[in-house]
Amino acid sequence: MAAQEPVKRPRLSAWKVLAVLSLLVLLTPVWIAYGCLGALLTLPSRTIAKTGLHFLAVLGLWLLFQVFLTDVEGGTDDKWTKLALAGWLVALLLAQRKLDQLLVFHLSQKPEERRMDIVGSMLLATFAIGAASLWRPSIDNFEDLSKHYDVWEYVNELMVEALEGWRKELKFDKFYLGGHSMGAMFATSYAVKYPGHVEHLALISPAGVGHPPTSKKLPLGLRVFRSIWNLRLTPMSVARYAGPFGPRLLRFSTSVRVGVMPETSCIRRGLIPQDALAAYWYNNWALEKSGEIAMHSHLLPGVFAKRPLCEMLTPESIEIPITFIYGGGPDWMSSSHGEKVAKAFEGKQTVEVLLVPGAGHQLFMDNAPAFNELLLAALLRYGAEAVLLAAGVATEGRLWHWVPASYSKLEEAERKILTRAIPTPFEMKKVAQLGTVVVPCSDEKKRVNAKNLVLIHGFAGGNAVWAMNLEKLSQHFNVYAVEWIGVGRSDRPDFNFKDYDSANDFIVGSFENWQKEMKLEQFDLCGHSMGHLVLASPAGMPHPPPPPDPSTEEGKIANRSWLRRMVFSAWENGVTPMSLARFVGPYGPKLVHNVVHRRASFMSEGSAMRDGRVDLTELAEYIYHNWALKPSGERAMTTHLAPGAHAIRPLVDQLLPEKVKMPLTFIYGEYDWMDYRHGQGIVERFQEKNRAAELYRVPNGGHQMFLENPDDFSRILIESLDK
Question: Which residues is 486 bridged to in the sheet?
């Protein structure tokens, strides 16, 4: 290989060092508050409080230095730079300590405490010098790689050729090739270089598929992370630098990681002993560093690739089937990147994107049965001699389970509600990625010839909202309740659509796939599609009102309203009612519980939500888990609705006699906040053309009339469909 330029290191700028010093002095009250609070509430002594205080100060100093460092073209690192950095750290650290001593601890210090201060200062100074020593790259292996940034070609060739040598040794001709995380990057490189040996490429939560954002768009947190990344540290470095404390550190981090895994995790189920896994990770990570250099040769901060896979995965460069598999839960690899690649292959070859329900980045451990089923279903369509799975860099995932929502608890809550309400057999399953409840016609004599009725919930709902109606409806129909993509038990892909058409095509396309897989040729739809169309309290009927004239008093008040501006801004930025359930973290269940009970208190006394037919605690639990899981389908609110529930494309322009060929029925609640007069106008327009159209109002019902007065709602729906 040709000689490469040495690494260009960041240099300090004097004015930025002064800025850090000034900021440190300004932050002193914060550190003092931390120390006092620690001494009073959590820590056993002032000495420990001071230690925590100093440690936080050092950590803040180090991160501030990294954020304020500037890359200088042609600048190189030398020992004087390192000494200067160490000196600044020590000087600022001691200045910070002196301020703490004068302002907090001086009056009550005893001689032994002063001695502790001296020892503590020495230890902290040693820490500062050690931190400064990290200014150099921390790569010792791969010989010539330690002094270079751009070693992608060299490292990639080593990895690919090692895999090819392994294949020859095992005498495989063709095989399935699967790679996880970073392993997916090397698997892709191998498949591109040796396409004759790979029959199917499976990329499992792959890193580096999409293009990285530009530096100008990086948030502060990622700027800090990028600066630490430039030190050539890896997660494995922590295990080494911890020395004899490494095994204990890995046991602790493993216990934290297991605590936030879904209940379907093979570790939480006891199939893999937690201590054995921690020991394996430690001994794998703490050995001599070598292959982990690939983190820095191939990746940028934020797990973006220096050479994105989307540039390698093109119809011109690869002709084998490709399957992307992502976690359908908190997977920090975005499935949207895989979907963009799949779109580029449309009409040319097989590329699919699958989601493992409830799983994160370690999807093969988070939900092993579902992962195995999806992977085997994708691979067994093709023949091969062997399957090779290339592992990637492990991640600990989220460090704090702030939102206590899970797919398993959502499914459990839904099943509990349905079991209470439906005495006849029913089935909960997922079809074409959509959560589905099937209730066959309870009259076996009618079942074969019974009509199919498909129920689609509204915004913020799910299949469980139909629980009080399913038994009565199933006496006349084969009933299918189905959820939007990205809602309830449906898969929750990243919803990055910004315009109406792309979002609508995505949602409607998922229903079409569901209909094909269910093999329903004709059905009555309480929602949208073919057969008999029933719209229950539909949103987005009329045209939105024109904005107030800014020259009028009303317009001036509207323009000055901070609440109006805040609501519009939140709406445009995708903030939904579900966002609040996530934002409040562990307080979310209680918040939703209070909202549900408060909402029920405003309903009439004969309402099913007040007379005990609907268990409000069970309903609140279901609503919380439905709302607080990964945001996805709810994003359609901003593509389809404007603030005030006004449609971007009003239904009044879509529901025309010449466009809608099936019978049309509107159902509103008596106290519905959706104005029934908009539906009445459409019915009259249809009837003028001698087209079948009707409007009903459910007594003692509001917008959720199927929950508030399920008996009358079911009766009206059955009557309208039997006509």
Answer: none
Closest of 241, 614, 635, 564 to residue 464, by C-alpha: 614
Token pair for residue 698?
């459910």
Nearest to 407 by CA among 494, 488, 493: 488
Long-range interactions of 495-502: CB distance < 8 A, separation 24+:
495/631, 495/632, 495/633, 495/634, 495/635, 495/636, 496/336, 497/635, 497/636, 497/639, 498/639, 499/639, 500/639, 500/640, 500/648, 500/649
The reply to whether 145-212+220-381 and 407-527+544-649 are identical in fold is yes
Question: When comparing pLDDT for 350 and 469, which is higher?
Answer: 469
Confidence band, pLDDT 50/70/90 cuts, at residue 427: very high
Architecture of the domain spanning 407-527+544-649? 3-Layer(aba) Sandwich (3.40)
* Per-residue confidence band for 666, with pLDDT thresholds at 50, 70 and 90: very high
Alpha-carbon gap, residue 364 to 325, rounded angstroms = 10
Lowest-confidence region among 271-275, 485-489, 527-531: 527-531
Q: Per-domain residue ranges for the chain?
A: 145-212+220-381, 407-527+544-649
- Are 640 and 503 in contact, with CB atoms under 8 Å apart? yes
Residue 402, C-beta contacts closer than 8 angstroms, at least 6 positions apart: 585, 586
Residue 336: is its pLDDT beyond 70?
yes
- Measured between alpha carbons, how far is 372 from 364 in angstroms, rounded to an integer? 7
Tokens (6 digits) for 441: 């016609």
In DSSP notation, 352-372 reads EEEEETT--SSHHHHTHHHHH
pLDDT recorded at residue 139: 32
Backbone angles phi, psi at 191, to 5 degrees: -65, -35
Between CA 31 and CA 23 the distance in angstroms is 12
pLDDT band at 173 (very low <50, low <70, confident <90, very high): confident
Contact of 558 with 548, CB cutoff 8 Å: yes
pTM of the model: 0.49
**How confident is the model over 131-156, as pLDDT tens digits?**
444 444 333 333 333 333 467 787 88
Tokens at residue 355, please? Answer: 């989601």
Cα Rg, the chain, nearest whole Å: 31
Handedness of CA 253, 255, 256, 260 (dihedral sign): positive
- Give the separation between CA 248 and CA 537, rounded to whole angstroms: 58
Tell me which fold the domain 145-212+220-381 belongs to: Rossmann fold (3.40.50)
Q: Which amino acid is at 171?
A: K
If pLDDT is split at 50, 70 and 90, which confidence band does 79 have? low
Neighbouring CB atoms inside 10 A of 543's CB total 13
Contact between residue 226 and residue 202 where contact means Cβ atoms under 8 Å apart: no
Q: Which of 610-614, 640-644, 648-652 is most confident?
A: 610-614
DSSP 563-593: HHHHHHHHHHTT--HHHHHHHTGGGHHHHHH
Phi and psi based region of residue 536 (left: phi greater than 0; alpha: psi -120 to 50; beta: remaining): beta
DSSP conformation letters of 272-315 = S-HHHHHHHHHHHHSS---GGGHHHHHEETTTEESS-HHHH--T
pLDDT mean across residues, the chain: 74
Q: How many residues does the chain have?
A: 723
The H-or-E segment that residue 431 falls in is strand 427-431
CB 283, CB 158: distance < 8 Å: no
Token readout for 475 is 């006496």
Rounded to an integer, what distance in angstroms lies between the CA atom of residue 258 and that of residue 706?
40
What six digits make up the tokens of 9? Answer: 């290191």
Distance separating alpha carbons of residues 237 and 138, to the nearest angstrom = 9
Task: Classify the C-alpha dihedral 272-244-303-299 as positive or negative.
Answer: negative
Task: Judge contact between 511 and 487, C-beta under 8 A.
Answer: no
Cβ atoms of 371 and 383 closer than 8 Å: no
> Between β-strands 322-327 and 351-356, what pairing exists: parallel, antiparallel or unpaired?
parallel
**Side-by-side strand order, sheet with 451-456:** 427-431, 434-439, 477-482, 451-456, 524-526, 533-536, 664-669, 693-698
